[in-house]
Amino acid sequence: MITQLGHNTKTLLGLPIIGNTPLLLIKSLSTDRVRIWAKAEWEQPGGSVKARAAHAIISAAIKTGQLNRNISLLDASSGNTAIAYATLLHNLGWIPTICLPSNASSERKALLTALGVKLILTSPLEGTDGAQEVAKEIYASNPGAYFYADQYSNEANWKAHYLTTAQEIWRQTNGQITHFVAGLGTTGTFTGTGRRLKELGDVKLIALQPNSPLHGLEGWKHLNTAHTPAIYDPHLADVNLEIDSDQAFKMIRFIADHEGLYISPSGAANLIGAIEVASGISDGDIVTTIADTLERYKEVHKEIFGI
């Protein structure tokens, strides 16, 4: 059962308002009959889609008394959720504790440090799975000092998208959306948005993941070789597709040249998935999300553009 958090949580203790991001028509990938749309999720506090889940997790924890100024929010992250936590909690003067793989982009680490986060770097070989294990060990050693947010298992993660992202997409497309495409990381965006869109209309859901355990899509999971998040519903997707990282990097350049947008690798991968869906239909409105911009991936930017 879904619990409506209510509008008052948007300003609870001064937390910034989230959501209501623009829906952009990607003209260079669309035709008159098959249109590809993308939610500009970088226009959020913290600069990414993760503001939605972070806001919901923090709000729910404050309301239940699990989180306050004397208890530190603790979680594992590949970067964007950590930045969202830190940005939202900064308004309250609270400092989160984040377990982050040491191979996260230097831009993400620098931003988290600037936000005052207590940063614990974990094995680059174990990714976010390893970071989660470290977070669990820290929490077990001193549970009274932390609220372990556990975004991969926290129901507030997917509910945030059920209550906001899906509703916005439905309204912005006037209920004309035919397909929703999203990559799998924590799986909150796909699970929450997809679940609600299925209730609202006849919407096909397409889940994306990397085609290899060794990939360049930061924040995504290759579920066959990684821990499957507890919030993921494996029966929800109508179609599952795999995306090649090299193709995603090429798409970054294409979108920069044709749309003037400098999008992240995961955003580019979502668009590749949308293109594959578009190739198999004669009419429809395909919606995906672009989690963040290329600003947080300077090494990728340099590799693609040479500067």
Short synopsis of the structure:
Helix content is about 40%, strand content about 15%. It has helices spanning about 50-65, 80-90, 105-115, 125-140, 155-170, 190-200, 245-260, 265-280, 300-305; strands at about 25, 35-40, 70-75, 95-100, 120, 145-150, 180-185, 205-210, 240-245, 285-290.
Structure commentary:
With 307 residues, the protein is an alpha/beta fold. It folds into two domains: 12-48 and 165-305, Rossmann fold; 51-148, Rossmann fold. The protein has nine helices and ten strands. Strands 1-2-10-7-8-9 form a six-stranded mixed beta sheet, sandwiched between helices. A four-stranded parallel beta sheet has the order 5-4-3-6. Helix 3 links the parallel strand 4 (97-101) and strand 5 (118-122). The longest helix has 18 residues, at 155-172. The chain is globular and about 55 Å long.
The total strand number stands at 10
Average pLDDT rating: 93
Reading the helices and strands in chain order gives EEHEHEHEHEHEHEEHHEH
**Major sheet: arrangement of strands:** 1-2-10-7-8-9
Based on secondary structure, the structural category is alpha/beta
- Beta fraction: 15-25%
GO biological process, one term: cysteine biosynthetic process from serine
Protein name: Cysteine synthase family protein
Keywords: Pyridoxal phosphate
Cofactor: pyridoxal 5'-phosphate
List the helices and strands and how they pair.
Elements: E1 23-25, E2 34-40, H1 50-63, E3 72-76, H2 80-90, E4 97-101, H3 106-114, E5 118-122, H4 127-141, E6 146-148, H5 155-172, E7 179-183, H6 188-200, E8 204-210, E9 239-243, H7 245-259, H8 265-278, E10 284-290, H9 298-305
Helix pairs in contact: 1-2, 1-5, 5-6, 7-8
